[in-house]
Amino acid sequence: MLQRKNLPIVLLLFGAGLILAFKSLGFGLGNGNPPTKYEKILHNVGEMLAEIHYSPKKIDDNFSKEIFKKYLGEKIDDQKNVLLQSDIQQLKKYETKIDDEILGGPVQFVPAVTEIYKKRLPETEEIYKDILSKPFDFTKDETANLNDDKLDYPKTEADRKEAWRKRLKYMALERYYDLLEDREKNKGKENFVVKTDEQLEQEARDRVLKILNRNYDRLKLKVSDDDRFNEFVKTITESMDPHTTFMPPVDKRYFDEEMSGRFYGIGASLREEDGNIKIGSVLPGSPALKSGEISIGDAIIKVAQGPAEPVDLTGYNVQDAVKLIRGKKGTEVRLTLRKTDGSVKAVTLIRDEIVQDETFARSAVINTPKGKLGFIYLPEFYADFDNPKGARCSEDVRKEIIKLKEQKVDGIVMDLRNNGGGSLYDVVQMVGLFIEGGPIVQVKDREGKPQVYYDRDKAVLYDGPLAVMVNEFSASASEIFAAAIQDYDRGVIIGSTSTYGKGTVQRNIGLDKTMGFLDPNSELGTIKLTLQKFYRINGGSTQLRGVASDVNIPDIFEYTKIREKDNPDALAWDEIQKADYNRWKYGLDLNPIRKASAERIKSNALFTTIHNNAEWLAKQSDKMVSLSLKKYQEEQKKNKAIAKQIEQQNKLPHELNVEPLSEDMKRIEAGGDNAKLERYKTWLKNLRNDPYLDEATNVLNDMVTQTNLVYANVNKNQ
């Protein structure tokens, strides 16, 4: 199933208007008893949503019903196979009371849900273990609806067991099919043990059982009452709009680390394998390497903060384990490891700074028959807000441009594909590298007062041809950059029909009243709150509509519902008055560029295949599945044929001539991290075989040709 990429929010400094808004909040608790931690969090969040959110929904009985349905159906029991309809009926008394809890009443709904859920969990554990203890009959012609959105809670225990049987049978069928394929492929090979159909069916069930046991270990041992409450608060905040959310303290720290590219930890990457969290790699110079006691393949059994009681990692996923191992610089973390030889060892480490520079901007040179082009990859608009000397993407991109200019490139491709956004300050600075000053973006609050953000530096670092690559996962700050470049006629936007469509601005607000709500690192948690909307300098919002590409390339996800517009809680599109700006004096006529690209794409077999299969992909999540081996095999045959079509044509006839900058390669080689070097080489290899980059270089070369003519004409008339 496709998962929506988490989109970073844009962080801004607090304005005077926001501080005044805080002062106006009473944050009364309604009842006379001292509030619990849960009540403090929920009540503070409720008043912030009502008083400060850009466009809040009314917190009333209708909102309460919405939260009731979403929390139970999306957070607690998304597959509708744990709770019964009688449980939902029992909880119905809270259906119109959640708004009262948010607005000051005692927290009762989540504890009631938890009580029922804890009762049902061991029942369903018994159900799946019983079902998986018996063979499945894959000759029977039956179907299952696995679309969670179209399922209802079972009426009886028998209905629940039948729902489990069908889901487990499909999971086993997938693995049984794979095992049959593997047997057919390897039959006759030396040392390969040929198993019977019955043995393979048993192995398929065993594999499903292992997955379910691991998941239930997580639900029983990892997921706490606090976790269920936190998900409840998230359900409330995210119902206001998709980007308003609640972060417990550990999630807030992890968010800051991802934005800054800097964290304090042990310097080891983790991987999940057979339900264990294992060491995947160890960074040179890190605390893990210096200890001499941590090796690749070691399984981490427990993690302790200094002298505190260790936390058992059974049921933990990699991200949750990472959150435990990271912490403040200079603090102690104790790992209990199961070594590859089976021995158990406790290792004490002191956390130190780790820089994730692989998430920073990087560049390369593309040599084409028509000339030399520069390429800049920017995975996110990162910024280390807590460290004035920390990494900032605008400064890093500036350095990459200078390096490419020294290579005397004829044009630059800026790759913002899959870039979910980040720092507003940096996107303003970055657009300024390409224009002679002027407005970059407009931001409006709930009072309707637009503020224009300007590039006030008249200097232009790079004035040559510019192409910006985007796709449906390019969001927020990426869309501001693309929109500004487009509105100024400064470059050409290349990619899917439109970008993601996130045109809202969030701020991190701590929930600690004693700190005036201005410390974003509250022990109660933090709310990422939508306070403003972005508008292009031409007046249109990037919300919902995103940025339409100047040159469109077929995309496999074109019809898949993954953009902002596909979320029913998304805020609406609108427009305001345009800003005063002057277009780039060397602007190009895009018509011949579009026409030439369209002709190339039309004759490109890969893009034809992608276009034809985009609708097919979008329909895959909506259909019923067959539990018959014969029908499943037929379906897989079709799917494999389509996948093979795409795979065969996904390689360029001739690789692009992509070269790293020698200084970058030397720096990485000198670092002594072989795994990092291999990842860098893989990145270059992927670029050489990227059909989208290939078409972007064709477009950029067409731009270079036209730019030379435009420059000549402009200079002639001056």
Automatic annotation (TrEMBL):
GO biological process per UniProt: proteolysis; signal transduction
Keyword vocabulary terms for this entry: Hydrolase, Protease, Serine protease
Top-level division of the source organism's lineage: Bacteria
The UniProt record lists the keyword Protease: yes
GO CC annotation terms, alphabetical: outer membrane-bounded periplasmic space
This protein's record includes keyword Protease: yes
Protein name: Tail-specific protease
Family: Belongs to the peptidase S41A family.
GO molecular function, one term: serine-type peptidase activity
Pfam families on file: DUF3340, PDZ, Peptidase_S41, TSP_NTD
InterPro entries on file: ClpP/crotonase-like_dom_sf, PDZ, PDZ_sf, Peptidase_S41A, Tail-specific_protease, Tail_Prtase_C, TSP_N
Limits of the PDZ domain: 252-326
